[in-house]
Amino acid sequence: MVLVAVISQSCSKASASSERRYDFPNIFDISYTPDTLHRHYGLFTDAGSWIGFTPPEKEKWINGFCGPYSIDMNRREWLAKCAVTVSGMDLGISLKDSVCYYPGELVISSEYKNGAITQRLNFIDANTMLLTIDNSLPGGLAFTGDGWAAEMKLSQTGNSVISVHPTGETVVITFPQNVKLNVDNGNYQANAPHQNRSYVSVAFFCSPEEAYAGLNKSVDVLENPLSALESNKLRWEGYLTSTLRDDMPAEYDRIAVKAMTTLASNHRAARGGLLHDGIIPSHAVGYFVGLWAWDSWRFCAGAASFDPELAKNNIRAMFDYQQPDGMIIASIPILPKTMPVTASRRWCAGRLIKFMRLPVTRSFWLKCILSLCHTTNGGMPSVTMIETGCANMDLPMEPLKLRHGKAAWITQYVSMMWKCLRMMVMTMHGA
């Protein structure tokens, strides 16, 4: 369920100059206006959320953030082309449109003859986002939706627009009482009086039950928007402080921030078969929405420096499916939409355990080393070279004797991978 509640409130524009994120403008170019001709190449998503947004393309401008987009691997879909478009009364033609992706914040702005409308989107947590709208135009604001998914059914309850998807995901757009709202012909129109700043709380839930339990959080965010924004600021300041180093050349800073932001955007909260938060390989494509053992271990190495708890949970998520003999399964897909949540753990374990039942042979080690070479080296060594190197190595050929305890298993797995790396290096250097 997605809840969008809008309130208007005048306040002075907060200074953003002290935040380090603003040293890294346009960290990614993910501009995309949904159509049927091409797909998006990434979303603005954060804090483990299962929805994302994109700024519109300048050639196909929409004055609002495109989305929300459902990241569920079993049903990846734009719930709306733009659930909340924002405009002023009698604007005329925009003179200039711009977008900017800062770490943890997405900004779009439209300038007109008599003023401008600037929108900022921040994730407060996995369920809650806050949209801040600054309006320097003389009139009020008009809100409407654009391009709702065909399956969405819109209705009005009080001063709220309720749009429901057959899966249970729902978009609820709630306006304050001083906004005139009308729902008709599959869309809504809302007119608000002039305010210098308006706030929009967007809350996402996977089921109506979760949504009803989490409605108070949306109210709290709307009542204390500056506090919510401060929490986002402190979280991202912590990420950046942990990532940037004084002993690192300044020209490397942007690369480091890009890497950190990529990991943060691939963080997904516990859902369905995923029993702990984790980092997926890529939210941009459906077949990478899940956890894989090999990817998870290296993502932990990257995340540990700026979000230690996420790194720990990424390990815990894999050990949630540890088998009685100690084996860890290869991957954890997200729960199929047709399966009850209570059955997800059995489904994941039963379906995927076979991928880790590999015979420990010389061919097995050869494949491991080839895989590592492919991952870490631009030029692939020949199979013959590696076979020659492996022939001189004392490779273990018996099934691994598994030690009890999760901490011991992590140590043993990492130790095994280091041995593979050592073999690869020695082979490639002719040792």
Mean pLDDT: 76
Helical segment tally? 9
What percentage of amino acids are in beta strands? 25-35%
Radius of gyration: 25 Å
Could you give the order of strands across the largest sheet? 6-7-8-9-16-1-13-12-11
> What is the distance, rounded to the nearest whole angstrom, between the alpha carbons of the first and last residues?
58 Å
Largest sheet: 9 strands, mixed
Low-pLDDT runs of 5+ residues are: 6-16, 336-362, 368-383, 395-414, 427-431
Which structural class best describes the helix and strand composition? alpha+beta
| C-alpha geometry | globular
Explained architecture:
This protein starts with a strand and ends with a helix. The chain has a 9-stranded mixed β-sheet. Strands 5-10-15-14 form a 4-stranded antiparallel β-sheet, with no helix packed on it. It has a 3-stranded antiparallel β-sheet with strand order 2-3-4, with no helix packed on it. The chain has 9 helices and 20 strands. By secondary structure, it is an alpha+beta fold. The longest helix has 23 residues.
